[in-house]
Amino acid sequence: MLDGQVFLGWLSLIVLLSSGPAAAYFGLTGNEPLTILPLTSETEGAAEKAHYKICDRLKLEKKQRRMCRRDPGVAETLMEAISMSAQECEYQFHFERWNCTLEGRYRASLLKQGFKETAFLYAISSAGLTHAMAKACSAGRMERCTCDEAPDLENREAWQWGGCGDNLKYSNKFVKEFLGKKSDRDLRARMDLHNTNVGIKVIKAGVKTTCKCHGVSGSCTVRTCWRQLSPFHEIGKQLKQKYETSLKVGSTTNEATGEGDISPAKKPISGHTDHIPRTTDLIYIDDSPNFCLMSKYSPGTFGRRCYKDKNCESICCGRGHNTQSKVVTRPCQCQVRWCCYVECKQCTQREEVYTCKD
Ligand SMILES: *[C@@H]1O[C@H](CO)[C@@H](O)[C@H](O)[C@H]1NC(C)=O
């Protein structure tokens, strides 16, 4: 489903607004397609500054580029973050009309608007970066950070901090600096900043303390504990839920100056009437298209594979679906043989494949 060449092909700096300072955004919210893979080839030999090449290809803003270049671990982590966010987005939207099509021109048009989908892209991008950086620290891939440090001493008696925690503290600091603070003068800029912060918050809220027992035959006289992030799939799932319950906001402002606060949209939106957005809600300002037909935002759902009784009705937008019978061969009746391999039979099966009609 995923093609590395394609899905890593679109990132760069985005200049969303013509006014105010350039937006220091990153990840799936970049709007110029750019092929940044392959990562490894052609850099052999010049290994010392190999990461400079990655930093350049990422088309970062000046400050971001400086941060990228100062540590080879950063370049690697940025790549990891983009790839994680993209895979998770595609996974979460696999059954939806908008299936997280990230191909250049569709994404660029989408990012010009303040849709719920745009909100999701901002949140998953900042979440991906926060997650990848905290993990990179604890994995020892960074020069400027290592494991999470022990917190205050209050819990010392019960157990010790040990192991190697994911370094969210460093990661947060890095992400705040890396994404910068956008001008918050207009509603759209505030929407983006808000949704970026939602992504960071979800990572923070998912931190768990994990412990391990030590002592004679597992007597647990000593426990060591460390902080661990939720798996990124869990984060993706939560952000998808937030997408579904996202809130439309309007502005209490004067459109001319752009000054003012985010507030619920003036016209009540079904289900979410006068619900004031919290700092953990995703917010949007423009109603999304239905993504049924080809438009500048998506290729439409003609010919999309769908799953009967699950999403054909919804994603085919009432046009109905075609059914095709296919013969597929799969490994089956697998058994583990001593020692140590798995033996399977090949089973042939007829399967129905459904696709949306034109
Ligand atoms: C999304 O759907 C389009 C067809 O509408 C398809 O070409 C594309 O591969 C799908 N993308 C993903 C990530 O599944």
TrEMBL record:
The UniProt entry, under Gene3D superfamilies, shows: 3.30.2460.20
* One MF term in the entry's GO annotations: frizzled binding
Please name the GO terms of the biological process aspect recorded for this protein, alphabetically: canonical Wnt signaling pathway; cell fate commitment; neuron differentiation
Q: Where is the signal peptide?
A: 1-24
Which region ranges are annotated with the description Disordered?
250-272
Which terms are listed as keywords in the entry?
A: Developmental protein, Disulfide bond, Extracellular matrix, Glycoprotein, Lipoprotein, Secreted, Signal, Wnt signaling pathway
Asked if the record carries the keyword Disulfide bond, the reply is: yes
Which CDD domains does the entry link to?
Wnt_Wnt9a (cd19353)
The answer to whether keyword Cytoplasm applies is no
Question: What is the protein's major site of localization?
Answer: secreted
GO terms under cellular component: extracellular space
Where does the UniProt annotation locate this protein?
Secreted, Extracellular space, Extracellular matrix
Q: What does this protein do?
A: Ligand for members of the frizzled family of seven transmembrane receptors.
The record's family statement is: Belongs to the Wnt family.
Query: What is this protein called in UniProt?
Result: Protein Wnt
